[in-house]
Amino acid sequence: MFDDKKIEILSLYPEEIEAEPSYRRIQIFSWLGKRSAKTFSEMTNLPAGLRAELAERFTIAVPEETERRISADGTEKILWTLHDGERIETALMKYKHGTSVCISTQAGCRQGCAFCASGSHGLSRNLTAGEMLAQALYCGAAVNHVVLMGTGEPLDNFDQTVRFLKLISHPEGRGLSLRNVSLSTCGDAEGIRKLAELKVPVTLSVSLHAPDNETRNRLMPVNRKIPVEELMGACLNYFQITGRRISYEYVIIDGINDSPAHARKLAALLRKQAAHVNLIPVNPVPGKPFKQPDKDTIAKFVRGLGSIPVTVRRTLGSDIGAACGQMRSTKT
Ligand code: SAH
Questions:
Q1: Cα angle for residues 135, 178, 28 (degrees, 5° grid)
Q2: In whole numbers, what is the pLDDT of the chain averaged over residues?
Q3: For a Cys-Cys bond, which of 24, 75, 100, 253 suits 316, CB 3.0-4.6 Å?
Q4: The whole model's pTM is what?
Q5: Domain 7-59 maps to which CATH number in 1.20.58.220, 1.10.340.30, 3.40.50.1860, 1.10.150.530?
Q6: Where are the domains of the chain?
């Protein structure tokens, strides 16, 4: 049981866990990260006295699994209830090469993108690094790929997100290679610059969705503060500093951003860097008027991109509301 008078241990690096002698810290950290322990009593290589003492001082933020839905395509969506009643969602995608988990970084979201369900009720609160980690540890699958693409804007919760990345990749914990982690942002230029400086080798995905300010302003309120030119400047900087190719997400919507002219502008914008475009036919969200373009329009758009590498994303989990843009959060 979570106890808010105690220290939440899943958010801590081993050196921050006060336990003596110091090699015990690594043991405790490994029980959590490698073996997904939910209680101190199961840490059987620790002396009973230490286990009891740890339980007095620390709490493990194991979220309650409130519901799990399984899609016809095998995708799962887990609804968790956090200790304060906040609800968040996690999606599990099973591929031939392993399981990918789509993690939420906030309860709700303040960005309010026109086509996305996650921001419909605004932001409730940031998640802690431990609450992000818990989604990977307790989802019931051997996770080998993490995408920060659930509810929330990871760069609006910068410090906890970076802490999460360090925790999940820590060799004494889960030890997941950051090459297997993708972080998706709606376009916080300053956050992208900070991430480049930190040199955390994740794959950066940028939710672009439009190549010009006029179209992007209609879809994403963030663009009114950070226009396309400023965002692209930060992306180019990221590419130059890290040498890593950025993946650009483009939710393609009937009659809004799907013309060959949009495609040509997009290609011109990305020409200066090694980019990859991830085209996502918009998923339906209740109460939102957006429709997917027909196959022919999508094919023309792809041709308009010329030599820019592009993938059309396969929709997974839309029958259970686990597809991109369908994840939300509600409070109990
Ligand atoms: N805030 C971050 C992380 C969320 S990622 C970001 O904006 O990138 C979720 C991805 O799903 C983003 O690319 C988002 O734009 C996309 N998305 C949102 N609503 C969608 C919808 N209705 N259909 C398809 N993709 C959607």
A1: 55
A2: 94
A3: 75
A4: 0.95
A5: 1.10.150.530
A6: 7-59, 64-320
